[in-house]
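User: I'll paste a sequence; please echo it back and then give the predicted structure.

Assistant: Echoing your sequence first, then the prediction.
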Amino acid sequence: MPVDTQQILDAADSLGKLVAQHPAIDRYHQAQKSLSDDPNATRLLNDFNRQLMTLARQEESGMAVSDAQRHQLENLQSQLASHLKVKALNLAQMEFVDLLRKVNDAIRRHVAESAGAPGNGGAAPGPRVVV
């Protein structure tokens, strides 16, 4: 039975509300807040991003990046990688993205099956559906 766009949007809204209640979303928001409340972590992130952008602009303009500049960026990256709040945010972000991937995969699977992809009685596959 065909459905109209509004039915799909209503279901998507309900799904969005369910996803927002998942513990992974709360952990992600808590990790973001914890990181933003930490002046040292914020400074490290800002320094790293500033250095990264500076080196990217420098390379785009044809100027070579010095070993000292590379070393400074690697040092900042190492400090970030070992910072507990950055680690917590990375872990929470991976969990958050994994949840969204699983939801998207479930949608793709049903769309592909309805389009005659393998798994739908062996119907001939059509164009690949990309969501």
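The two ends are 22 Å apart (CA to CA). The chain has one domain: 14-111.
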